[in-house]
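#lab-general

N.A. 3:47 PM
ok so I finally got the sequence cleaned up, no stray characters, all 289 residues accounted for. can someone with queue access submit it? mine expired

B.Y. 3:52 PM
send it over

N.A. 3:53 PM
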Amino acid sequence: MTSEQSKRPLARLVPGGARAARGKLRRRLSAAVRLIAALTLVGGLYSAYAPGVGRAEEATPALSEQAKRGKELYQTSCITCHGTNAQGVQDRGPSLIGVGSAAVEFQVNTGRMPLARQEAQAERKAPALSPAQAADLGAYIQELGGGPQLPSASSLDADVKKAQTDPKTLAHGGELYRVNCSSCHAFSTGGGALSSGKFAPTLEHSTNRDIYAAMLTGPQNMPVFGNNQLSPDDKAAIIAYVQTLNKNSSTSPGGWSLGRYGPVPEGLVIFLVGIAALVFATLWIAGKS
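B.Y. 4:20 PM
back already:
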């Protein structure tokens, strides 16, 4: 066999191997192209039939300027206990979704929040934020999850002032207070003890908005008095009665006030002091005669 004859089989093998390699490469490229086309088709169909998913961020309404300021305050003062999205943190703070701006303004303006430590009950103290900052924070929570809102300060003060000048409305407010509030806050609004180290606070230093917000949101152990239980006019009448008591707390038209704790201690004092004095007076008169 000559050298030319020995090279022919090799010449036939080499081109065939190259063709096989090129065919294998084409098949891989074709499979990759088909896979990319299929994924593109599925993604396009998904975007077409589920547009809300792709545009979830765009569909989220933008925060107002007041709520943006409130968000900044939230991230510096509240996020540790209430979570990044106000969803609450276990054993630290409850969720704020749905509590509304009324609850936020009440807790912040009365100094109960931010809470320094976990206690049986948060007590009133000097507020850490101004009323304007509390309103900003409340606006952020309101836009985040909705909930009860307070009326404007001017309209509420006007309603309370009007109720204070009307004797019938003021008497109605007193009746509502005695039925719904006096069992915990006492007849004189001085507050009282509850179970497990809790208590109903005094209303002596409460503003009109504090009392309205407390009735509307039911903080801590207090029940919620929504507008279906007590109308806004009823709430204004109760506030007018409470503020009238607070205004006249230094005077006692009926004589000795005995701390304004209500008829039970007054009756007890009358029995122990008054009846005993009458008995001794009777015996003294009988002895003299």
